[in-house]
Model the fold of this input.
Amino acid sequence: MRTLVVTAVSAERDAVAGAGAADVLVSGAGPAAAAARTAAVLAREAARGRPYGLVVSAGIGGGFAPAAPVGSVAVASEIVAADLGSETPGGSVPFASLAELGFGTAVHHPPRALARAAAEAAGAALGPVLTVSTATGTAERAALLARLHPGALVEAMEGFGVAEAAAVCGVPVLEVRAVSNAVGPRDRDAWRIPEALTALGVAFGAIVPVLDGWREHSDERH
Ligand SMILES: O=C(O)c1cccc(C(=O)CC[C@H]2O[C@@H](n3cnc4c(=O)[nH]cnc43)[C@H](O)[C@@H]2O)c1
Done:
């Protein structure tokens, strides 16, 4: 089975490729670029008779305290479009998701057994990973996201786009993130990118054999 790994930038590609990931696409940052480029590659390879059997969104991300400290790794149990929807005035929850607006799904589910096995192999946390179009830069928004998405481990900017492309092409999806910074007030100088890229590479070294051994029909849900 062929696996396509999608990263936002080349430094993330180098981390996963150095750990044994064979096919790695650099999509650019954000869910739209990730969706467009992932869908194009999946469709092209399927048309050539060499379809991918799994897509993995991988890279660094912001971690929600205290569950996901800098340097830790998270595997997504759910890939959630966290800011795709509408603000709503009044009430206790000032946001309605895409699904609540009646426009489709706001959550994609990786195959359960695969996500669990990947997390175990990497010593990673398993939980919801949020996709945002605007990286969080205030304590207020961090608190709101944590309230809207209890148990969220990480936010990043590509997972839901990769997952949408995978769903359109009928391919299961996984997301793996290494934490470079805390979700909260923006402080780019505090990002620990080299440490996160090292953690991503180490995690991938453990996860690649799990991906190679995984068969879709052996999983109970995708
Ligand atoms: O400057 C570098 O050397 C460098 C190396 C690797 C990655 C980067 C990035 O800037 C990656 C951008 C990518 O990272 C995700 N990310 C990281 N932290 C957050 C966050 O707090 N909130 C949302 N996204 C985050 C995201 O997926 C970006 O596309 C630079």
About this structure: The beta strands are 2-7, 23-26, 52-63, 73-81, 85-87, 95-97, 107-108, 125-131, 154-156, 173-182. The two ends are 16 Å apart (CA to CA). The chain has a mean pLDDT of 96.
